[in-house]
Structures
1.
Amino acid sequence: MNEILTLPDARLRQISKPVEVFDLALKTLLEAMQTSMEQGPGGVGIAAPQLGELLRVVIVDCSLGLHPCKNHGRLLMVNPEIIYQSGKALGREGCLSVPEWVATVQRSKKVTVRYQDISGEYHELAATGFEARVIQHELDHLDGVLFIDRVLSVHDLVRRM
């Protein structure tokens, strides 16, 4: 397992670069991300910057989570971007890179994301509920944004026991 970066590591605040070459190095990165997510403490998503790789790559897999929801299984997304969002909902979030804290964060209820797969082919996917929340959380990492930056009130930030 690769080490998952945690605050205050400055790399978590960097903006990631788009992937331009779809090769063995990208496949190796995705494998390392999958392993780190699976061996970590119950994560349902991970972004490349959390492993110190400043590339626009995320994995989302809500089928691993404790929240039963409609989901698309394991999503390996390269150069993802949200092209549509609607509604607002509050929900609790935590993060592998901020392991001691959880908070209530407002996110869109529905999102449509456009991304490339490991071969560079484009896809669009509509997600709702918890899966939409996780996608937004992971895409924030690509721009150096952490969930604690989106907390509405310091009273919503709770230390995990």
2.
Amino acid sequence: MTRRDFICSAATACVATPFTRNTSAAPARPRRLADVGWCWDGQGLNGQWRFSIFGAGEGTKWFGLRRTCFMFHPNTAMAMEKLGGMDIEEVVCDISKWEYQKVEHPDYKGLGAPMRMNHDGRIERKRREAEIVGRLSLKYPFLTGAFDDDLYGQIKSAHVKSDDYALVHRAVKSINPKLKHWGVVYAHELKKENWAGFTDFFDVVSFWVWKSKDLVNLDRYVEQCRELFPGKPINVGCYLRDFTLLDAVPMDMLKHQWRFIAKSVADGTIQGYSIISGKLIDMHPEQATWVRDFIKAN
């Protein structure tokens, strides 16, 4: 086993164990924020922003982190080789794919450019992507999870039943049983009936507050999430941009969230956090720089 494989295996083992509040007599080693943070990386395209100078893995490194949520691109060996070559210690790959849609110019047929992202959340697509990620994880042990984005929206719109979704969960585990199944949950979706029959499928809950004005209730939301998904590690999502305001997250709300993150990581309430995203660093440099400095200081 190489030193690289040893590091990756150790990182995988750490994430496999849910974080809980420390009740033992011996004090736990304080966890630095940099040790439990993830950054979404990849060139997502939307009418709200321009292309970024930060590509896959580069946002992660800029924030001083070592864990990447790889989004918006095909899950391929080439992508894993790039991330592995950047000394990224851990990667999760999306299986609910955001893909480019090409819009043809009326005067230049065949030269249309990708103009927006389309979300493909079909069960059969997720199963196929989960198997791809599983095969890649056998070759690249730093790939530790499959990430299912905007899940409840698809459950609701497509009337997905828990028996149908069980096929996705089995696909995540079919090739590499150690692979972690991440599921996105929003604060406005925290109703027991929304997730009836689905809660056992997630190894990690990726938890998000959609509107920045609602971050004042973050502590209450996380407690509700813990009640809804008992015993599940919670990874709190942190936006740089409020997509409802079409602007950066206001600094007062941003700081409020990150102070909660630091406290909750320290006391074991949450497993860690994820930043959206590397591609927004150069669009919202004030927010991104403050977050980077806060992580470094804590």
3.
Amino acid sequence: MRRLIIDAGATTSDCCLMEGGTLRRFRAPGMNVASMQEGTVTAAVQAVADAAGPDPCRIHLYAAGLVAEAPAWLDRAFSRCFPQAEVEYQSDLMAAARAVCGHAPGLAAILGTGSNSCQYDGETIVRRVPGGGFILGDEGSASCLGKNLVADYVKGLLPPAMAEDFARRYDLSYAEVVRQVYRGPSPAGYLGSFAPFVTAWCGREPYADALVEENFRRFFRRMLGRYDRLPVGIIGGFAAALEPALRRVAEEEEIEIQMIAASPMPGLLAYYA
């Protein structure tokens, strides 16, 4: 039977159809199970079905906010669009665990706009330290890095050259920063959007290097340090973009990183091979 893997993000769903020895990758609209209306998600599922074709298949959906038991409305959407399919519903954290650990025990983490992590026994997630969101935690993420940068900027703590560059690029008033962080539609995304500014200064300004490394150090100590000592795999575009710094801090913290990848899909394909 054909196998369809869907790694669903809020904006885009990365899909791969496995049939015999062939693979076909394609993209479809995103599916945010926690925030999107049923009709929007159904339309996204229908777009996946149109691209995958009508033949029966076994579907593995991974998405943020999902647990092993899907909400009834999501199951209805898949039943309408894939009437002959068997569907497995799992979280994005399970996607990361399977992608980086396969069938072996280990620690899996996601470092993107936010952060998440778990301990995996080779089959199931056995322990999870909550990320806490961008206000209470999300250590190691782009939003946490951006939050630390903006906090230092509004207090006048950035090195002069960085402060001048930041003011020139973004032209932000204190009132606008407060509005976006406390009343904006996506505070975490807003703060995360400043992460590339920090990374652009890495290697030129010690403050930027220290900000990045301390962000990762807090992630290792406050999140991964709460689990058993096991090999670590990390998924996320933010992690992949800063891999040298991430590995350097991990080595200092005596944490073994076995994999860093921007997307879980290559690891998921190996898991199902």
